[in-house]
Write a structure and sequence with these properties.
Elements (H helix, E strand, L loop, with lengths): L7 H4 L4 H20 L4 E2 L4 E2 L2 E7 L9 H13 L5 E5 L1 H9 L15 H9 L6 E6 L2 E4 L14 E10 L8 E9 L3 H17 L1 H7 L3 E2 L10 E2 L1 H20 L3 E2 L5 E3 H7 L1 H4 L8 E2 L1 H9 L4 H10 L4 E4 L4 H9 L10 E10 L15 E11 L4 H18 L5 E7 L11 H18 L3 E5 L8 E7 L5 E10 L1 H5 L4 E2 L5 E2 L2 E6 L4 H11 L13 E5 L5 H13 L4 E3 L6 H10 L4 E5 L1 H6 L1 E6 L3 E7 H13 L4
Parallel strand pairs: 11-15, 17-18, 24-25, 24-26
Antiparallel strand pairs: 1-3, 2-3, 3-8, 4-5, 5-6, 7-8, 9-10, 12-14, 13-14, 15-16, 16-23, 17-19, 19-20, 20-23, 21-22, 26-27, 27-28
Helix pairs in contact: 2-3, 4-5, 7-17, 14-15
């Protein structure tokens, strides 16, 4: 069973790997009960990375217990127990749960299976109730499973955490034990190697060690403090994309971090996006008036929601602000397309349990742009947007990606606008992605509430998927805001709006880059591109002159003035992932050269300073990897 109930038909749609992992969850439960017979089990579904089971018992599982549980699981696999399905009546199911038999190895007098009793009550009347048994373990379950436990031998327990029954904190805390499983030993070992590699590349650890960013509880969870070195990486990314935007005729704008609620009522972000937003901010005179009237919090919230009181919102999107910039002037078809770009910071309310370093935050900056064009210009503008995303990913060595075309679900009520406008937007994106000539999939129900979108899903160096750049075509917001331009026929027309963000979020994108490069950024992105290493105080003056020369040329360079031996200086620079080290001793001073060392390529020999500088400037200008 899972916390979110699926239909019987949905459960039968499991892949072979999901079926295996579901079966391994039952094997794990069997093993735990053999060791701790008092365990009360809730549900144990397969998930993307493996499986878990939620349960309650006196003993608190720790990683020290994993070896013992895994050993028992391997015994159960060797016993080759058959998974047998049995359909039972509601009365029989309740009787088995009350006796402690469901989710147990035998009847447990005085210890009824209370989670199973609750889950039985949640099964709709008339729906078939079934259980599965392997060996002595029997559990309320719709299946499906593999045939025998022998297939469940390539398993590994991964972690343990706390959880709440059905996600409800009021129902008490459970233990959640996670595991993973694969069809064979080789695939399992490959997965474990990837996980170890992911630990080495974890941007949270590297960000701390390399002094790139900081998250402080007094500032707030999910709010990133960019430290100087991290800010240099961000600035390099912004300079890169800005140069490309200048070539394509974009205009940069700046907008405030908040806007009136009515602005977001018109756009539809409020209330359509309400659950993902920070609460509305009431005006001071409204708060004072309500305080004088001894009004309740609910009166304030309801008044802000229904428009009785004026308020503001931390902006969840930049688009309404850009729309207002477009609408501030009279436009002719000759003025279009208008391309407005902004590194705009937005704010989303994420649950604290979903936050993670830079990749899942509450405040983030998008490399956002909105294009306003005629219907005839849509195809060309979308193609240019897609080409820009391709250029960004290609420059950063992220050529392994797929494209996802996210469409609306006609049966859902979460989308705004006319069906014919959605059809036009979806067809425009479909045509553009076909011209792009890359593998793509169509996913129903994944569109933004105002329009379909193309997302680039990038595979990193260890095989993980990340959703990055996005392009969206929108016929709806221009209508909601009554945007217009004068056409060639001298009448008013409604423009089409294109939303695009090649990086997506600078926070998330930088977090991904830290992991992609393992902190070893190419020279053009590295916060410190060169470190000058004088062998002793005797060559310090020459080293300072070299440092000044590089700095004057725009190179991000520092000098190591410590009294450490040169070997320690080189080691420290490598640990900090600095691309180039220039060693200056007495010989280099006499010859007017520097001894060049590379972070990964080691000793590159001695070169005149001007020669090294010219080579480095070319490497940076070409954004070599």
């Amino acid at each position: 069973m899972s916390a979110e109930r699926k239909t019987l038909d949905e459960r039968q749609q499991m892949t072979d790997l999901e079926r295996l992992r579901h079966s391994c969850a039952h094997v794990m439960a069997t093993a735990i009960l053999r060791i701790w017979p008092d365990a009360q089990f809730a549900y144990g579904p397969p998930i993307e990375t493996g499986f878990y089971y939620d349960f309650e018992m006196k003993h608190r599982i720790t990683p020290d217990d994993f070896e013992k549980i895994e050993a028992e699981m391997k015994k159960i696999a060797k016993e080759n127990q058959k998974f047998e399905r049995r359909v039972i009546s509601r009365e029989e199911a309740k009787a088995m749960a009350e006796s402690g038999r469901l989710g147990g190895l035998s009847e447990r007098p005085g210890n009824p299976s209370r989670f199973k009793l609750d889950l039985i009550d949640k099964i709709p009347e008339g729906e078939e109730i079934s259980c599965f048994q392997n060996g002595e373990f029997i559990d309320l379950c719709a299946g499906p499973h593999v045939g025998y436990t022998a297939k469940c031998k390539n398993v590994k327990l991964m972690s343990v955490s706390s959880s709440f029954y059905l996600g409800d904190e009021s129902k008490g805390s459970l233990q959640r034990l996670y595991g993973t499983a694969f069809e064979n030993k080789e695939l399992l070992e490959q997965h474990l190697v990837r996980l170890e590699e992911a630990k080495k590349r974890d941007h949270r650890r590297l960000g701390r060690e390399l002094h790139l960013f900081h998250i402080d509880e007094e500032v707030g969870q999910g709010l990133i403090l960019w430290k100087p070195k991290g800010a240099l990486i961000r600035r390099s990314l912004q300079d890169f994309i800005t140069a490309e935007l200048d070539k394509q005729g974009y205009s940069q704008v700046f907008t405030p971090h908040i806007g009136k609620l009515d602005l977001y009522r018109t756009s539809g972000h409020f209330p359509y996006y309400q659950e993902s937003q920070y609460p509305a901010i009431a005006e001071r005179d409204v708060l004072e008036k309500l305080a004088d009237e001894d009004a309740t919090c609910s009166q304030l919230i309801n008044g802000l929601s229904d428009g009785t009181y004026e308020g503001y919102m931390l902006k969840p999107m930049n688009c309404p602000h850009h729309i207002k910039i477009f609408a501030s002037e009279h436009r002719s078809y000759r003025d279009l397309p208008v391309r407005l770009a902004e590194f705009g910071t937005v704010y989303r309310w994420e649950q604290s349990g979903e936050l993670g370093g830079m990749t899942r935050v509450r405040g983030f900056t998008q490399d956002d742009a909105h294009l306003f064009c005629t219907p005839d210009q849509v195809a060309e503008e979308v193609t240019k947007c897609l080409d820009l995303v391709k250029k960004v990913l290609g420059t950063l060595g992220m050529g392994d990606y797929r494209v996802r075309l996210s469409l609306r679900d006609p049966e859902s009520d979460k989308y705004v606008g006319k069906a014919e406008n959605w059809d036009k937007a979806e067809n425009a994106l479909r045509s553009a992605v076909q011209v792009l000539g890359v593998e793509y999939t169509e996913e129903l129900g994944e569109a933004a509430f105002y329009g379909p979108k193309i997302d680039f899903v990038v595979k990193d160096v260890i095989g993980r998927d990340w959703q990055l750049g996005t392009v969206q075509v929108d016929y709806n917001l221009p209508e909601r805001f009554k945007l217009s331009y004068i056409g060639a026929d001298n009448t008013q027309h409604t423009p089409v709006m294109i939303h695009r963000a090649p990086f997506g979020s600078l926070e998330r994108f930088t977090g991904l880059l830290i992991e992609h490069f393992e902190g070893k950024f190419p020279a053009w992105l590295a916060p410190e591109q060169v470190r000058v290493l004088p062998i002793s105080e005797k060559t310090l003056e020459t080293a300072e002159a070299v440092t000044a020369k590089l700095a004057d040329a725009g190179i991000r360079v520092t000098i190591d003035r410590d009294s450490d031996k040169i070997g320690a200086k080189i080691r420290n620079a490598r640990l900090e992932r600095i691309p180039y080290m220039l060693v200056i001793g007495q010989r280099e001073e006499e010859e007017g050269t520097v001894s060049v060392r590379h972070r990964d390529k080691d000793d590159l020999g001695s070169k005149p300073v001007d020669e090294f500088l010219a080579e480095l400037k070319a490497e940076i200008a070409e954004r070599r990897l």
